[in-house]
Amino acid sequence: MHDVHDHTGPEPYGAGGQGARTADARAVGQGELDERVALLEFTDRRALDDAALALAAQGIAWSVVTLPRPATGRHRFVLTVPVAQADAAKVELSGYVHELKQRRGVEPLPDPVDMGSAGAFGYVALMALVFLCERQGLFGLDWRGAGVNSAAAVLDGEVWRTVTSLFLHADGAHLVSNLFFGTLFGVLLAHAVGSGVAWLAILLAGGLGNLANDLLQESTHRSIGASTAVFAAVGLLVGVESIRRRSFSVGPARRYGPILLGAVLLAWFGGGNVQEGGGRGPVDVGAHVLGFVAGLALSGPLALVAARAELRSLRVQVVAAGVALVVAAAAWTAAFATWG
């Protein structure tokens, strides 16, 4: 059940010499709710009160529908008005929203789509599982040989290696590092677009980063590790936030600040890759840079998910997570089918 409360709005100024007055809140029946139009959705009650006050000052009746958010324990507040007053309310609130943007520069961050725990658990579990399988040679398979990102093999058509190599690590320290940073940026991205969509985008951007790197490297180039996907997550995250800021009245520094921050992170942490063969070999900066660039490239379509509630639904998240698992499974199936 949704909690719905209605306010009739104030009486016009000058009525009997009295100021604005509002009726007490009361429940709105379903029949009345069907005759109302949803205007804005809020997670900040103070912002809701400001918008309602702007409507009340114009004598526009308004009501609030409270929607629960089980994933976060917080609530959303939907501001509605009667159909007959919808046009006037939209005009009034358009001015209010513009004033709010001018005053705040950037809107408060939206309520997280989910807390990202499910996706983070899946990421850690899959990476740890493949690490153990590779170390133990499970099922008598050469996981490293079949899955390493080899530029020569990829250019020869074995493009699945751009994905399988993301799951391979040289040692425990390499794995733990990528688990920590991958989980951190994956959870932050899941807040904006949901866990399923976030990890599908990270997987695809990581694979694209590896592919681009293979096209630029010598044919002898070989690499393993999730770091390309980690920096792809950084690119996705800062790209989505930068696009979100374009709709607000902010200067270039604040608009593109997230991308600059991502570039700083890339420069600071992007110099410690592990090459295939174990040990701390030459730094594969290209994989990190191109992973970041691939993330930026995919942040455009991903920003549409962040902006549209229907694309952040549970159904979409489940489907996206399923597609990510299918892509990973298909890549490993192809790797083993063609190896040896």
Furnish the topology, listing elements before pairings.
Layout: E1 3-7, E2 26-27, H1 30-34, E3 36-42, H2 45-56, E4 62-69, E5 74-82, H3 86-104, H4 117-136, H5 143-147, E6 149-150, H6 151-155, H7 161-164, H8 172-193, H9 195-216, E7 222-223, H10 227-245, H11 252-255, H12 257-269, H13 285-307, H14 314-338
Antiparallel strand pairs: 1-2, 1-4, 3-5, 4-5, 6-7
Helix pairs in contact: 4-8, 4-9, 8-9, 8-10, 9-10, 9-13, 9-14, 10-12, 10-13
Describe the model:
This protein is an alpha+beta fold and 340 residues long. The chain folds into two domains: 3-104, no CATH class; 117-338, Rhomboid-like (Rhomboid-like fold, Up-down Bundle), CATH 1.20.1540. The protein is 58% helix and 10% strand. It is built from 14 helices and seven strands. The protein has helices at residues 30-34, 45-56, 86-104, 117-136, 143-147, 151-155, 161-164, 172-193, 195-216, 227-245, 252-255, 257-269, 285-307, 314-338, and strands at residues 3-7, 26-27, 36-42, 62-69, 74-82, 149-150, 222-223. The protein has a five-stranded antiparallel beta sheet. The chain has a two-stranded antiparallel ribbon with strand order 6-7. Helix 8 packs parallel to helix 10 (227-245), helix 9 (195-216) packs across helix 10 and helix 9 (195-216) runs antiparallel to helix 13 (285-307). The longest helix is centred in the C-terminal third of the chain and has 25 residues, at 314-338.
